[in-house]
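Handout, section B. The chain below has 165 residues.
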Amino acid sequence: MQFDLRRFIASGRADWQQTFDCDLSGRDFAGSRIEEPVSARFEAAADGNEVRMTLQASASVHGECARCLDPVCFQAQVDAEWTARERDLEDPDFDLPLNPAGCIDLEDWLYQEFLFQIPTVLLCSADCPGLCPQCGRKRPCSCPAAPEQSAQPDARLSVLKSLLN
């Protein structure tokens, strides 16, 4: 969905609101997925020579725990606000996805905001013990102590230990 920011600023229109559905299932969220369509709300309000824009949405994010590979699902919330002026339309460093005609791609903006909200490392819990290196099952397991816990440290790494002193 496109919002013509250039035309909105030039016309000094009254407030504008739109609710739209967005399919983000094909987008990359660093291993996470948003499988269901997202309903988002966009508002634009003229405030003197500025336009105040807000974007709100909520989505179920699915992924795998980085330690134990169990499924993880949580709600991510986007509540973004942005202020723009006419001079921003010509700024090459303008942060919103703006095309040369002055239109903002609201789906791209929503995607960017979810990227900021979704952690790059998902965990099923903060104290997840992870997988056992011997049997591959979720810890705690019935394996004897893992060999790396009982074996002597590699002598080649002693140089690194001396750096800590």
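Note. The first strand starts at residue 2 and ends at 4. Compare this with the example in section A.
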